[in-house]
Write a structure and sequence with these properties.
heterodimer, A: about 400 residues, alpha+beta, 6-stranded mixed barrel, B: about 220 residues, alpha/beta, Rossmann fold, 6-stranded mixed beta sheet, 4-stranded antiparallel beta sheet, about 35% helix
């Protein structure tokens, strides 16, 4: 019997036992779809988190005042000293390091914003023009704090603030009062939504000098540093630490963190999670495989006399085995294909329902899901097929 | 040429041994028309199954067309069955999912004949057995006589040297049974060895050689 004939004959068999075949295909398809959808969810969560982090900026190094690690005694403590402030001069010094592409010093505080009789508390960021590219922010109107214009009283409003204070949409060029000072609105941020629990649509950004004056501080909250490249992150980190230690009289009293370390950890955890749910979904495929085996064992029992007949007209044991094998192949192929489609449809529905979650099933999961369906189906057919092949034709024909 | 020498076939029923065939020796020449008769349990079906290589004897030698086929492997037995033997059963044994034409095509498919040649040979068989307008019908849509004609067409499609029929008219009424027998006898006239197992005396009497069996042994062999 040629392989093509085997495939054709087994296909017509599968097609004629409609209900039974449909149920097996359904079980297989659900297993494959579960693999695809669950990995899409896991992968979506991973991409979401990674996306959230990279919306903070790429190759980002964050410098904060004070020590976050305990090492040795703090010699100044005996003299009643506190860690030194992180100052604008420090920032300026770091900005000359070769590994640093740009940086933005940052002060954060809350102040009262007022204009045209409207009044509300807003989170105020004090920074420089470099904040925009470092934090990957975009403007919808006007211009950001112009370079070298840290001394001019400009303010950039978040999109929600702009809409609340200037419903007519003409915020740029208007005057607002922040705390006790007056500012000129130079630009409006584009809608960005929430990122790491921080809504940049409801902030106001002013030049760093004004912020320090407003909040009456010399110390910076953070310095956001962008390294020249991913590879430059570690050298930049070391250089910054070294430079600031020198500037602070040999005292290492700043903490330098990179988001890449955090990001890598999240990435690893979520990848492991995706693999885990894929494994759980694969168990349902194994169950489907057992179902295939059970149904095919029943089929062998039901079709005993047919198997006897095939042997009587000259089918070899190998022919019979291949026929049952091919039936399992068709069933799992159909199950795999339908499950694949169903899974991608499900992932699409999830993306539709939760647009924030990029629930795209990873290619490896689709391939592995379909392959697992094929392999379990074929393995499950081995026992029934060999049982059919071993049937004694005389007994089979007499229906015993 | 079928030559059985001291063939024994033993079945075990619990701890009891049943000698379905006990030291049976028989020669059947090519082109003979033989009936095997006897009460049920006399071993006539077992004899037919041994001749048709469906069953393996526990002792003795079997020579078919000059070749010793006693110790052939399972695959070789399947090949010999395909090429030299045609079976016709009382209960037809058609594959219910396949059409009449597809049932007739089965041995050709197992033999690995190319599809185009298969089609022309199946068409010829459909014409020869007057089944042309039933080609696309499934067994459940055919009458008993038509089913047996499909079964005979399937049994003869590879031109076997021997046609083995086990109660071929057992499930048919008298008139249709006679038609089927006439068909089988026609094949015999064309040169095929025809061996019919039956317990119908009238049917058995039509053969040219009558073998009587009882308790696994040949008790009569008359021409």
């Amino acid at each position: 019997m040629t392989p093509l004939d085997t495939l054709k004959l087994s296909f017509s068999t599968v097609a004629s036992y409609r209900t039974r075949s449909l149920l097996i295909v359904l079980a297989m398809a659900l297993g494959v779809a579960a693999v695809v959808v669950l990995t899409a969810l896991g992968e979506g969560a991973r991409r979401y988190v990674v996306g959230q982090f990279s919306s903070l900026g790429t190759n980002l190094i964050i410098v904060l005042p004070g020590r976050a690690e305990t090492s040795g005694g703090f010699p100044g403590a005996a003299l009643g000293q506190t860690p030194r402030d992180l100052t604008l001069d420090d920032a300026l010094f770091i900005s000359h390091l070769p590994q640093v592409r740009r940086l933005a010093p940052l002060n954060v505080g809350v102040a009262e914003l007022a204009s045209g009789g409207r009044l509300r508390e807003v989170t105020v960021l004090g920074s420089t023009s470099e904040l925009l590219p470092i934090r990957h922010m975009k403007l919808s109107q006007g211009s950001f704090l112009a370079q070298g214009s840290e001394r001019s009283a400009q303010i950039v409003l978040g999109s929600v603030l702009a809409r609340e204070f200037f419903p007519d949409g003409k915020a740029v060029g208007q005057r607002v009062r922040l705390g006790d000072s007056r500012f000129l609105v130079s630009g409006v941020l584009a809608v960005q939504g929430e990122s790491m629990g921080f809504n940049s649509d409801e902030i106001a950004i002013i030049p760093i000098d004004y912020a320090q004056e407003l909040f009456n501080t010399e110390s910076l909250f953070r310095i956001l540093v962008e390294a020249r490249s991913r590879n430059a992150i570690e050298p930049a980190k070391a250089a910054i630490r070294h430079a600031l230690t020198l500037r602070h009289d040999g005292e290492e009293d700043v903490t330098v963190i990179t988001q890449d370390a955090v990001l890598d950890t999240f990435d690893r955890i979520l990848r492991a999670l995706t693999l885990g749910v894929a494994g759980i979904a694969a168990i349902s495929l194994a169950v489907a495989g057992i179902l295939v085996m059970n149904v095919m064992l029943v089929a062998v029992a039901q079709r005993t006399s047919e198997i006897g007949l095939l042997k009587a007209v000259g089918a070899t044991s190998a022919d019979i085995r291949r026929l049952f094998f091919a039936e399992a192949l068709w069933l799992s192929l159909a199950g795999g294909a339908i499950g694949y489609a169903l899974g991608h449809f499900g992932a699409w529905m999830i993306r539709l329902a939760y647009p924030l979650l990029p629930a795209f099933p990873p290619a490896w999961a689709s391939v592995a899901g379909v392959a697992t369906a094929l392999i379990t189906g074929v393995i499950a057919s081995l026992l029934p097929a060999s049982r059919a092949a071993k049937l004694d034709p005389v007994l089979a024909l007499s229906g015993k | 040429m079928i030559r059985l020498a001291a063939i024994t076939r033993v079945f075990r029923m619990g701890d009891q041994e049943v000698r379905a065939l006990n030291n049976v020796s028989i020669d059947i020449a090519s082109g003979e028309y033989v009936s095997i008769m006897g009460p049920s349990g006399s071993g006539k079906s077992t004899l037919l199954n041994v001749i048709g290589l469906l069953d393996r004897p526990d002792g003795g030698r079997y020579e078919l067309d000059g070749n010793d086929v006693t110790d052939l492997s399972e695959n070789e037995r399947a090949r010999v069955r395909r090429e030299k033997i045609g079976f016709v059963f009382q209960s037809f044994h058609l594959v219910p999912r396949l059409t009449a034409a597809e049932n007739i095509e089965l041995p050709l498919m197992l033999e690995g004949v190319a599809p185009t040649e298969r089609k022309s040979r199946v068409d010829a068989a459909l014409d020869a057995f007057d089944l042309r307008d039933r080609a696309r019908h499934r067994p459940s849509e055919l009458s008993g006589g038509q089913r047996q004609r499909v079964a005979i067409a399937r049994a003869t499609i590879l031109r076997p040297t021997a046609l083995l029929a086990d109660e071929p008219t057992g499930n048919l009424d008298h008139r249709i049974g006679a038609e089927v027998m006439a068909l089988l006898e026609g094949l015999h006239h064309a040169g095929t060895t025809l061996i019919v197992v039956t317990h119908d005396r009238e049917l058995g009497a039509r053969a040219h050689r009558h073998i009587g069996m009882r308790d696994g042994e040949i008790v009569a062999d008359e021409t």
